[in-house]
Structure formats: structure tokens, C-alpha cells
Amino acid sequence: MSEISRKTFLKSSVIGAAGLALGALVGCSEAGKGSTDATPTAANWDREADVVICGAGGTGLAAACSSAEAGASVLVFEKDSKPGGTTALSGGVIQAAGTRWQKEFTSFSDDTPDRHAECYLKQAEGIGDEELIRSLCTGVPEDVEWLSAIGINFVKVYGNCHVPYAEELHADRIHVYEGGGGIGQGGVLTDAEYAEAQRLGATFEFSSEVLHLVYDAENGVSGIIVSVGGAEQRVKANKGVILALGGIDRNLELAKALNQQQYWDLTTQQSMISEFASGDGIRMGLEIGAALATVGGTIDFDLATGQATDNSLPQLPCVTINASGKRFVCEDATYAYQYRAIFQQMTQLDGPTWMILDQNMVEQGVGPWAADVDAAVTDGILIKADTYEALAEALGISATNFVNTMTLWNENVEKHGADLEFGRNTQLIKLDKPPFYAHLNVSANLGSLGGLKIDSNAQVYDLTGKPIPHLYAGGMNSGGWYGLYYPGSGTSLSGGLHFGRVAGRSAANA
Ligand SMILES: Cc1cc2nc3c(=O)[nH]c(=O)nc-3n(C[C@H](O)[C@H](O)[C@H](O)COP(=O)(O)OP(=O)(O)OC[C@H]3O[C@@H](n4cnc5c(N)ncnc54)[C@H](O)[C@@H]3O)c2cc1C
User: Fold this and answer.
1) What is the pLDDT averaged over residues 317-338?
2) Ligand 1: does its nearest atom lie under 6 Å from the Cβ of 56?
């Protein structure tokens, strides 16, 4: 975020409520120093622990385990009445390279964490933090070994779909455990982490909403203010506070200020994210002058088809067109890469984008509509026409542009066996068999990208480039370890698992 938009956000927001004067907050942020009105003195803390963890999702639970294992007393506060967060809603798949499971279940036996990092760096398009990305890819194989040690049984590894400019760096790296892979099955993972954290002695407080960090410029973060059962408590952290509260997913105000694609999703598309994902950890970091990293993208995919979420599944024979009737993206590139382009086309042209299919879909039996395509037409899920011109008319787009688009696609695959425009490499077949179908693209949002700037010890940085003493963050509360589109399934949980465990150790050893 630019400094201008950050100030605009701070000035226009209500985040200075509950004891924080907004003027003081902005002053504190701009100068990187000062203290909040809410700062307790040593005499009025209600409770204390070595490490105080905010959030009991995948990241917070991983942090609780590593902190407790390092010998710290650990207190975890969670707004929900149970552990898990968005991680429990997820499919639970995790990316890692060079693991024994990758060697066993894929043909990529020579893949390495270095290649994984190169792939992520390329997909981060120059704005990713190389230190963080390398630290994630190097560390996550050991993290998945730890998951195995606490009872997670990996049974499959598949790959995300390619990105045309990073083709040679792709490999199958997405680890699936027994009972995982489907939406909601991330609970297997968080149940195992929660059981381990309890075994190691971490204490949990549920239905407890963390409100603010306690901070002063001299000492950094010394604790938190949390609402437990409606009563505010001031909790001292002797060694460190870990923010593991997820991204700004459901926070309309922060999305509007920081992440246009997330705002567009929240206001016009579908959302599948947890009701508790209100971006509190990022807001609390901003309150004390923390810096942000790689804020801007989203985890978006096509819920109706699941197109390009899994390279082991057949991709739909289709092209994707914009409101001008033209192609604009590689249709078998990983889903969030496509949805970034879809978002841009929809906002640039102020009109929808469509997936165009033909009778090949039915004959191949690929996708959700092939078995009963007429029902999909009757239900209004697909629009059907017998000619390109009639389909263009039904969609309200230029027939000339659309016919040219389809003609070019058909010529390229016939003459060259290749997509010369956007680098598609599956389903290189002519789409000239009537009837033709159109499916309106709607983004299903799985979260926003970008969070507090951290280093490879998961310590949070301020706007002046200095670490904030005793403050750590991980998972989607942090940013920098990806770019402005989600590089593929399993990345988010890898970052939560890895930087959660690192944050826990760093805080315990501070
Ligand atoms: C349907 C779906 C499927 C997905 N599948 C995958 C997948 O298979 N693999 C993958 O890598 N990614 C997947 N993702 C993305 C991934 O699940 C999330 O990005 C990730 O779980 C975020 O983890 P986290 O630890 O940062 O946040 P969370 O797991 O959401 O944890 C944050 C916790 O903080 C709590 N909290 C929030 N505010 C407060 C507050 N003020 N006080 C106290 N507690 C608070 C929340 O209740 C929550 O428990 C999926 C997402 C969705 C929605």
C-alpha cells in the first residue's frame, strides 16, 4: 500500500476506538514511536504468560505447539467458540518440495526446496520477499514431517496448474492427508494441532476477542487487551505476542482501502471465508505502525467447475472471453492467476467474462454439466446457442469480435497444435461443434492476500524498517511470502504452518 492510501485509511477509519485516540494513532504510526492511551502499567495486568497467541486457526495452533515445546507458558485467545478458523474450513492441502511423500507419490523425485522457492519467486513477480520465500520453502518439508509425527498421514501428492511464464519450475507439491482434500477437511489438521498444543500444556480461551496490542516505543509490544466473556482483560506477554488472526478477508473497510480485488469479491462475488476473518491482526499492526507486505491479491477460483485447481484432473475444453468477446488469459493456468485477469477485465470493461464451451464438453464428459447439459441450460447456469453469432447475441457482445476470437483459436490449434496467444497447453482442440454454451465466471473467494511485514524469524517490522520488539505474526496475518495472485493450492497452509511454528519458537526464545 502506498503511504498516501495508508494515511487515508487510518484517517477515515474507526480503528482508533476503545481507548485509542485516532490522532495519536496516526502520529504513532507516522513517527514509528509513541504509546497508546490504553497502555497498562505493571500494576494493572490481569493475567500473564510467556507467549500470548492471538487466534487458534492453523497458524496460531502451530505457534502454540512450537512455543510450548520450547518451554514457554502459552496462552491462546480465540474469538470463535472452538479452534480451527478458516484452516478448519479448508481442504487442508499443503505445498512442500523434496519430501519423502513427493518422492513416493509423484514422478518429481529430484524436486527441491530451492526449485520450489524459484517457482514462488517467479510467481511473486518481483515483489515477493526472497528471504521469506526461501525460508518458507526450505523449512516446510520439516514442518510436514512434524505434522506426520503428530498423526497426520499423507496419502497423495498432486500439482497445481501451470503458469505460462514459470512452466519449467512447476512440480507436483500439494500434499493431501488421509481424510483431507475436500472443503471442511482442514479440521483433521487443526484437531491434530489442537490436541498436540493441549498435550504440551498450552492454555486456550475461546469466545475471547483480542481488541488491541499494548505497545510503547521503548519496549515494543508488552501484551494485549482482550474481551473475555464481555469483560476486558489486560494480558501481559513476558516474551512475545503472536498475531495469527488471518487476513482482511471479511473487513470491507480495510479491503476498500488496501485490496481492490478483495473489495470487488466482497461486494459483487461469492465468499467462502470464515465469519470471524475480520482482519483484526492487520488492523492492530497498523495501529502501532507496522508495515505491510504484498497486500492486494486474493485466493479466487471458479466454484462451479473447479477449473485449474488440480493438474491431475482434466481441464474443460473452453476459452474464456471478456465483455468485448476477446480472449485474455490462459484457461488452464492456475485458478488465481486466471481470476486476477478476470477481475481486471471485469473492472476495465465494466462487464462480465464468460467461459465458452461446445459439444466437446458433452462428448468428453468433462465438468459438472456434461452429464445433463440441458438441465444446466434450463436452470440458467449455461446459455446455449447453435451458432457463434447467436451466442454472441445472447451474451450481448460483439458478434464480429467473438467470431474472430473463435476462428483464431480454431486456426491456431489446427495449424500449430498450440495456443500462440496465451500459452494454454491442455485441451488444444477446435471448439467448433454446436451447440455452443457460455458460463458466467463468478469468483469464489477463499481469502485475501497480504499482511504484516515479517522477517524469517516471523518478527513484525515497522514502517521505518525496524523490527517491532516482541511482536510476531504468521499465516495470512503476514505477507511477503507470495505475490499478488495466489500461486496455487496448499501455499497458504504452508505459510501458516511454517511461520506459525517459527513465530512460536522465536517468541519463546526471545
Ligand atoms: C473453503 C476454503 C478452502 C481452502 N483450502 C485451502 C487448502 O486446502 N490449502 C491451503 O493452503 N489453503 C486453503 N485455503 C486458504 C486457507 O484456508 C487460509 O488462507 C488459511 O487457513 C488461513 O490460516 P490462518 O491461520 O492465517 O487463519 P485462520 O485459520 O482463519 O485463523 C485465524 C483465527 O483467528 C481468529 N480470530 C480472528 N479475529 C480474532 C480476534 N479479534 N480475536 C481472537 N481471535 C480472532 C479466527 O476465528 C480464526 O480462528 C482455503 C480457504 C477456504 C475458505
Assistant:
1) 98
2) yes
